Amino acid sequence: MGKFETSHHDSMGDWRWGAAGLLIPIVIAVSFLCLCVFVSGQISKQRPQSLPAESINILQLESNERLRRRKVSDQNLTLDDQFTLPQASIRQYSHLFILSSDDVPPQRTIVPQVGGSVVAYVNGVRIGQERARPYVSSGQKPFYIDLSIPNSHFQTGNNRLEFIITPNEWGAEISEIYLGSKTELEPVSKEIVAMDFTRKLWAVSASLGLLAVIIGLALSWAWQRYFVYGIASGALMLKAMLSNAIALSAGISLFPASLVIECILGLCVCALFIRFRSRWTVVLRGLALAAVLALLLTAFAFMPLSNTIRFEPVIPFMAVGVLPFLGFALWTQLWADYRQSKTSKKDLINKLTTAEHIIIDQRAALDLEIKKSAQMEERQRLTRDIHDGIGGHLLSLLVRVQSGDASQSDIEAELQSGLNDLRLIVDSMDHSADDIESALKTFHARAKPQLMASGIALDWKISTPFKPGQYGPKTVLNLYRFMQEAISNTVRHSGANTLCIDLSCTGPSQPFRIYIADNGKGVPDLIKIPCGQGLKNMQARAKSLGAELVKGMGLGGKGLSYTLIIPPVTSS
């Protein structure tokens, strides 16, 4: 029983929501229609009274007739009976009025809406013809009459105001006739010109719509969402451009062009109504219903059956009925896309932040692995250097001692050489993470006492600016060994008392030059320098550095010099 009652209440609730979803749009549409009719009524109240319909007689003319008098056989037709005549018939509209004196102020006659080609006469004298309206709204005829009548055209007694109308695609009819002074009829004249406001409203709405479409595309890049809005805005712009004066001067027929535009707007409204889903759906349904009603009235106004109906009260509704729906629907779509773009931007920032953290973590892990790999590589290098360098020296010394070929001085020299090599290895490891300049300072501190003990002065020079790149411990060790070998050769063989070491590098992208020169005895021929073990070692170190080794004269034209040119350090 409880389940039945629950389902019953749910169905009742669904029914109420469904009824509300139907009634609320109808109420919105009818309220909008009533508002437009009320505004139109307030405007109409400001008008002066038009000539009574029964005071205007209508005659059907033959094609060769102009301004004839009423015959006994003619029907007694008034303005209200004009729609009983054939559409293609030529008509004469006559109004008879009496003046007690011909001394009257200049008069004015206005016919707000005219279908057909019109010529106006006063007492048989032509005073003018129809004009194109500055703007034609749906349900209106494209022409009007606003003519001044000089007082010289009037006479005491009976006077006649007559219009001859030749039919065209808009038929042959007039809406109402006003006759009075210029001051009295000024509100009617202003109302005709004021209809141009509708054209401006459509043009502004179309421009704003196209601008909103561009903004929407920038927000979402989903052209499918704004395609219909773009079509509707274009149709509104064409409708604004097809004012009567422009269309007629360009030879454009307003009837088919306006009908096609109204059909396009109707299709746009239907497409948006079917597709749109939001929390404002009920309001949009009401505005869509009002738009459809306005478009249906507009389409009906183009039909021949509408000639007997006065559309003036609903013309404002017909003119702007589609704008609230299109504007509100476009605004809700823009707002939804704006919120979605903010959400998407926030999500994107979160994703980028997460990805950045992942990259940082991965980079840290990679750096750790690289560090571990570098440490392992350094251990292996250190093992090889000790084994190949110091181990080789000690093994060679051991063999010589066992065979009795090594003297006390030889043993001391070999042990000192092994000790120096061990110091070089330790120094290169100490400066593996430092710049090359600090490593060279350490070498300077160790080399100076060694040379002083042999009676050789060290002239240590570093160029300014000195900006070498970052070199690894392997490069540092090979530099140490190269310079140590040069110092050893100078101490052992040169007989010099001065050794100059000049270091220069102006930037990481420039070569690193090491110039080493002494003032010893040198050699007679630079080209045929004896290639002893020391020079071979220096050439091997230069090769391992990928550097160029240049030999030359030493200080003051004496001794020897060696220039080591190391290529710039690469980004890797």
List keywords for this structure.
572 residues, Heat Shock Protein 90, six-stranded antiparallel sheet, five-stranded antiparallel sheet, 13 helices, rod-shaped
Q: Can you characterise this structure?
A:
InterPro entries: HATPase_C_sf (IPR036890), Sensor_HK_TwoCompSys (IPR050482). Its EC number is 2.7.13.3. With 572 residues, the chain is α+β, with helices and mostly antiparallel strands. The protein has 3 domains: 2-45 and 197-339, no CATH class; 53-194, Galactose-binding domain-like (Jelly Rolls, Sandwich), CATH 2.60.120.260; 435-566, 2-Layer Sandwich (Heat Shock Protein 90). It contains 13 helices and 16 strands. Mean pLDDT is 75; it is low at 1-19.
Strand and helix layout:
Layout: H1 2-45, E1 56-61, E2 77-78, E3 90-99, E4 107-115, E5 117-122, E6 125-129, E7 131-132, E8 143-149, E9 157-166, E10 173-174, E11 178-181, H2 186-194, H3 196-220, H4 223-241, H5 244-249, H6 254-275, H7 281-301, H8 315-320, H9 323-403, H10 408-430, H11 436-453, E12 457-462, H12 473-494, E13 498-504, E14 512-518, H13 533-545, E15 548-553, E16 560-566
Parallel strand pairs: 12-13
Antiparallel strand pairs: 1-2, 1-3, 3-9, 4-8, 4-10, 4-11, 5-6, 5-9, 7-8, 13-14, 14-16, 15-16
Helix pairs in contact: 1-7, 3-4, 3-9, 4-6, 6-7, 7-9, 9-10, 10-12, 11-12, 12-13
EC number: 2.7.13.3
Enzyme class: transferase
Transmembrane segments: 20-39, 201-223, 246-274, 286-303, 315-336
Structure summary:
The chain has helices at 2-45, 186-194, 196-220, 223-241, 244-249, 254-275, 281-301, 315-320, 323-403, 408-430, 436-453, 473-494, 533-545; strands spanning 56-61, 77-78, 90-99, 107-115, 117-122, 125-129, 131-132, 143-149, 157-166, 173-174, 178-181, 457-462, 498-504, 512-518, 548-553, 560-566. It has 572 residues and is α+β, with helices and mostly antiparallel strands.
